[in-house]
Amino acid sequence: MDTTLIFLAVDRTLTNIAWFLVVGLLVVGFLLGGFMLGKRVRAQEPAPPTPESQPHLPDGGAVHEVSEEREYVEFPESGLRPHEMQGYGNFGSRTHSHQDDARAERESGYEHPNPRPARKQPPTLPPLGGAKPA
Prior knowledge:
Elements: H1 3-44, H2 99-107
């Protein structure tokens, strides 16, 4: 039996393992270098702001959100382009005169006078075998 082939196979296997180790060490070195560079850059950044330098609430307390209902503006159905409309397509609206009524109408499930058309059901196929449904 020729032992040189066995030694060549072992030598090739060890060479492949050595290449994986070299590449692995290079990757680890790049990662460590990246972390060190990031640490150095972070050390040069200014410190985070202190709680005293943060904004404070006004003397009157927190500002409350204002919710109001707006009157509906009819959209022209004459086929005008946006640049041909008043205000270049940006319609102004007014505050609704009866806020509580408008809000109650909106929240009660009121539907628009022109609802979307209902979806049509797909046609049903007759059962296999040609029998008519009862």
